Amino acid sequence: MKSQLLRRSVILSTAVIAFASCGKDENTLVNSPKNAFRQPMAIDQLKDTTNYVNAFTDNGVSTVDMTIGNNVYQMFRAIDAYGKSPASSGNPISAEVLNNMFTNTNNPYSGNFANLNTAAEKMSAFTGINGENRAAVIDTLELWFEKLAAASAFAGQTGGEGTAGILTTATGSRYLVDDKGIEWIQVILKALIGAYQLDHISNTLLVDRSLDADNTKTLAGKNYSQLEQNWDQAYATLTTRPVYGSAATNQSSGESFMGTYIWEYNKDAFPSTHINFLKGRGAIVNGDRALLAEQANKLREQLELTMAKSAVAYLSKFINNVGIDNAVAAHAMSEGMGFIYGLRFCKIKGGTASFSDDVLNDIGFYGTGIWSLTAQDITRASNKIKSQFNL
Fold first, then answer.
1. How far lies 318's CA from each of 101, 361, 368, in Å?
2. Residues 358 and 310: beta-carbon distance below 8 Å
3. 95: left (phi over 0), alpha (psi -120 to 50) or beta
4. What is the per-residue DSSP string for 48-108?
């Protein structure tokens, strides 16, 4: 307990306090200054295939810096890879290592992610900033790291109702679950899509307090303004690609995390997400406050609808597979549970912790787990989400 409190203290002390909570739902940008040092650009020349990094330059040098956003994004990928490893290797993992990855302490990264050990960023500092109780969000994630690690001790055995271990789908995919059928890595990942990606992009970087940042001069030693950096960090929190979605095929988004689920469950938004980011950045160059607010609000709406639609879709997948392929059903329900937890960060649509927890209670998350769920339980939970988000 002492070490947990110490970790929480460290996490909270690294929070990005400049992004204090804000009660506004819409961006008005009353005080946003007109850009005083850029040449105006033709917004209508920006297309959904335009390279984000190359589109905004000063004397031939890009003014886009994706370092901060992409560093934290790669930390997310590292947690993903480590957390899923027991299902393929059969080896247990450590909650301490997961916490070290989350807080970027004690050089936890290796292999392709080893460079992150020297990064200044900590994923914990970008998570749950705008939650009703940020300390509770961090404590919850720490608890889930422990549950994942505990389940991983049984990665060498077959799981089932009342038994932790590996569930294998008809097609050979392997998922590690606890005795209640919960695949904790999926809960963690989907919750972080809400608590980290959605919250940092939508509630931290695309609201007035960040979009009213200085846009009259470059930062010391940089060739971009604070406002330009805020917008670029939002883009880099969604994707590492200079053209979001450029690797999409009929079978895959070519993206990860939130970027994947926009493609999978909010396809109406997928073609426009990249152009919304481009137009918003162009609006910053031109000092066009109205266009900037418009693009920010569109993006926020897209991300929140993606969370809600994904939650509903995974509840449906559970119903369609339970009793037929229980490995698929458990996997789907665990993803759905994580997305439902993340709905508390959907501020435009009135997402709250109590709403998320109420829906989670409907599907046994805080009690019996998934094996005793009924179609009525799922329907009740799904209808609550559809009503709240007008789906």
1. 31, 16, 16
2. no
3. alpha
4. TTS-HHHHSEETTEE----HHHHHHHHHHHHHHHHHHHHHHH-----HHHHHHHHHT-S--
d(CA 248, CA 227) in angstroms, rounded, equals: 30
Would you state the structure tokens that stand for residue 39, as one six-digit string? Answer: 């040449």
User: What is the rounded distance in angstroms from the CA atom of residue 280 to the CA atom of residue 295?
Assistant: 5
Q: What is the pLDDT of residue 367?
A: 80
Q: Which residue has the higher pLDDT, 39 or 228?
A: 228
Determine the Cα–Cα distance for residues 174 and 290; give it in Å rounded to an integer. Answer: 49
Residue 252 gets which letter from DSSP?
-
- Point out the least confidently predicted range of 26-40, 161-175, 339-353: 26-40
- The C-alpha atoms of residue 111 and residue 187 are separated, in whole angstroms, by 25
Neighbours of 219 (CB within 10 A): 13
Distance of CA 274 to the CA centre of its chain: 17
| Both structure tokens of 143 | 């608890």
For tokens 């937890």, the residue is 341
Give the pair of three-digit tokens for residue 226: 């604070």
